[in-house]
Amino acid sequence: MWEIIELGVINFEDAYKLQIKFHEQVKQGDTNKLLLLQHHPVITLGRRTENSHLLISKAELAKKGVDLIKTNRGGSATYHGYGQLVGYIICKVNKFKGIHEVVSNILQVVNSTINEFFIESWVDTDNPGIWVGNELPRKIAAVGMHNKDGVSMHGFAVNINMKLDGFSLIIPCGLNLPVTTVSIEAGKNISVEEFKDKLITAFLQIFE
């Protein structure tokens, strides 16, 4: 059983406070939560971030209107902005054979949703995310999770129709490879709402 909560556009810190709130509720036995949202421009730093992954100072980021926040999720640096669908999964991981199974399910959900737009994408389990292209791989979605007291936090981010210039401020996920969007790969504009509707269907099927 899942409760799906759509938060619209929200800054990272407010969304994180909601994650903490829902984490405690799920820990106490409440329904698992899927939070779906977009963030105001922000760079988040995961546990594997190295100093070299950030290509600009915090002061310079502030001038550009981009926040910088350290997090407890897995992975390295990533950028969030308008036109990107973010999903946070708050669930008891033992219902899904542990956090690795949760991550695997998320990758399957996102990949299958991208495929519905006639895009050939593939899953990288070593650096959890979704890619397109073989000769020059391009990252289209990222996954980073945290398991606290048997309940997951954080989740995924899919580039739908966002501007990609924010990624030039970092080495995305610590990998010096390009990023792309669903709209670019589909050859037409795909809205966040259209993608979100299809993702919810796939999510409920895979996380049943």
**Helix/strand/pairing category:** alpha+beta
- Taking the alpha carbons of the first and last residues, their distance comes to 7 Å
Order of helices and strands: EHEEHEEEHEEEEHH
**Percent range for β-strand residues:** 25-35%
Rg computed from alpha carbons, rounded to a whole number of angstroms:
16 Å
Shape: globular
Highest-level CATH class: Alpha Beta
Key terms:
208 residues, alpha+beta, seven-stranded mixed beta sheet, three-stranded mixed beta sheet, 28% helix, 31% strand
Walk me through what this model shows.
This protein is an alpha+beta fold and 208 residues long. 28% of the residues lie in helices and 31% in strands. It has helices at residues 12-27, 58-63, 99-115, 182-186, 192-206, and strands at 2-10, 32-39, 42-45, 67-70, 77-80, 84-90, 121-124, 129-132, 138-148, 151-159. β9 and β10 (151-159) form a beta hairpin. It has a single domain (2-206), classed as BirA Bifunctional Protein, domain 2, CATH 3.30.930.
